Amino acid sequence: MSKTYNIAVLKGDGIGPEVTDSAIKVLQAVQDTSDLRLNFLYGEAGYHCIADYGTNLPEETVALLKRTDACLKGPMTTPETPGAPVSAAVKIRKMFNLYANVRPCRTYPNVEALKPDIDLIVVRENTEGMYSGIEYEVALGEAVALRIITKKASLLVAKHAFKLAEKRRKHLTYVHKANILRITDGIFNDAVKEAALKHPDVTVDDIHIDAAAMHLIKKPETFDVIVTTNLFGDVISDEAAQVTGSLGLAAGANIGDTYGMFEPVHGSAPKYTGMNRVNPTATIMAAQMMLDYLGEKTAAAIIENAVMQVLKEGKVRTKDLGGSSTTSEMSEAIASKVKAL
Ligand code: NAD
């Protein structure tokens, strides 16, 4: 029986509209060939709407998100000047307690990667840590940033990571820097160990963040599920994405108990705005993760197969993959493949 889902769409800034439109095109192709129904509700958020709304996350958009089953989000620009609005993505993650940021990275067919058999997931704590956004200048030229770590948030993300590990190769690595950040990472590590008690069949090991960065280059194929705090997870998921080929392929899911927001791992790449040259696949795979989250496994599998086949054939490749195809040619190829499957 067909079900209709309300999907909030926030196109974002920079390359956001191009890659989000690409994902919508592919979702449209899925709807054209199945009884899945998606009701897209467009909202404003990001740097571009500050001039009109005085904020990067207007109240109307928050209300819209609350009326929907999930959100497909394009990347948004966040200015770096002190006092500028906090990132809209960070606000949404906190507001909806989307505690787990799930970022799969794997080797793709016909895409050059450091190793042929990488298949890992970075699960990043998504609501606190260095992203608390609390910084003070205590004296001229001296400042502190608060790295907030709680047992509650650490347990939530650890439990989510273990559930993923159970469905995969049953190997979980927690990444930290407890030799320096003894109290904060001590709490995080204890939470992971507590969660591990309920998953005796999952092999658990741990590694310092600096060593993890090195091992992701040296032997990425040895990782299955990595769980870590917010900033460490942000950094190593970009690294893992590049190790498997391109940031243009990496998608992420922000998961909470009652809502999910899906986005590419990459940012708004302002220098490529409107050039129709970036890879839309990360956002298309974010849409794929959204359908999977909604329980639409067949539709999600169709998108994944279509992406894999287009990459495998190698006829349509964007510049980051060594080709010369445009954003729209890539999304058109994936959408056509969806219709053909
Ligand atoms: P970025 O990810 O936007 O770009 C870094 C580089 O990665 C680009 O110059 C480009 O070479 C490559 N790249 C990114 N997306 C690509 C794609 N789809 N296809 C091919 N190549 C791609 O990172 P940045 O330059 O550090 O950040 C730009 C802005 O994005 C900043 O304002 C930052 O705050 C924001 N940002 C937003 C999010 C988000 O909304 N979740 C995430 C990261 C960064």
Briefly summarize what is shown.
The chain has 341 residues and is α/β, with parallel strands linked by helices. The chain has helices at 16-32, 50-53, 59-66, 88-95, 151-167, 182-196, 209-218, 230-243, 281-293, 297-313, 327-340; strands at residues 4-10, 37-43, 70-73, 100-106, 119-125, 135-139, 142-145, 171-176, 203-208, 225-228, 251-255, 260-264.
Written description of the protein model:
This protein is an alpha/beta fold and 341 residues long. The chain is 40% helix and 20% strand. The chain contains 11 helices and 12 strands. It has helices at 16-32, 50-53, 59-66, 88-95, 151-167, 182-196, 209-218, 230-243, 281-293, 297-313, 327-340, and strands at 4-10, 37-43, 70-73, 100-106, 119-125, 135-139, 142-145, 171-176, 203-208, 225-228, 251-255, 260-264. Strands 2-1-3-12-11-4-5-10-8-9 form a 10-stranded mixed sheet, sandwiched between helices. Strands 6-7 form a two-stranded antiparallel sheet. Strand 1 (4-10), helix 1 and strand 2 (37-43) form a beta-alpha-beta unit. Helix 1 (16-32) packs across helix 9 and helix 1 (16-32) packs parallel to helix 11. The longest helix has 17 residues, at 16-32. It starts with a strand and ends with a helix. The mean pLDDT is 96. Nicotinamide-adenine-dinucleotide (NAD) is lined by residues 19, 75-78, 89, 247-248, 263, 266-269, 278-279, 282, 320.
